[in-house]
Amino acid sequence: MKPRLFIRGNERGIREIGFKASGLASERVRGDSRRAWDRLAEKELRAYFAGRLAKFKSPCDLGGLPPFTQAVLRIAARIPYGEVRSYGWIAARLGKPKASRAVGNALARNPIPILIPCHRVVRSDGRLGGYALGRSWKTRLLALEKTHKKKLTRAGAKKTLQVRGLKAGS
User: Fold this and answer.
1) Which residues lie below 8 Å from residue 114, measured CB to CB, with a gap of 6+?
2) Could you give the CA distance from residue 136 to residue 130 in angstroms, rounded to a whole number?
3) Which residues on neighbouring strands pair with residue 11, listed in sequence order?
4) Is 60 one of the catalytic residues?
5) Among 118, 122, 132, 141, the one annotated catalytic
6) Distance from first CA to last CA of the chain, Å, rounded?
7) What CATH architecture applies to the domain 60-164?
8) Structural domain boundaries of the chain?
9) Under-70 pLDDT residues of the chain
10) DSSP sequence for 55-67
């Protein structure tokens, strides 16, 4: 049985993406806005995996995460499609250049991988490092983006990812 992704949202946006045995689908939720976010995220993920989408519009709700993790994820969300940055690069952007390990730990707790592209963060020596969905998924996602980057860049994909629940200046 192949693992598939599930999407879990609330009225503010997507709260979690992870593995499920039965297929890419939103969990049954109550409320029109929740279903709308889940449907949008599912549609965008299908387009992303087909190589037709580089930038997500699905809002992400990170309100329950610690401020440091929110700040790390906010920076990771800005890494362009098909590019990578190091854990140290993120630490430097936070004004904490020695916090590479803490950045890695925060990224490991990313509840919304792919939409918040922590797979684009690698070690300073260029090796992959870990990933919330596993190293094989990280390899797969980076290869997918490398393959489709030129085509999508020409198509003029625009980044509109909204991250909710983050403090200003985090």
Assistant:
1) 5, 17, 45, 48, 133, 141
2) 10
3) none
4) no
5) 118
6) 41
7) Orthogonal Bundle (1.10)
8) 4-49, 60-164
9) 1-3, 20-34, 153-170
10) S----EE-TTS-H
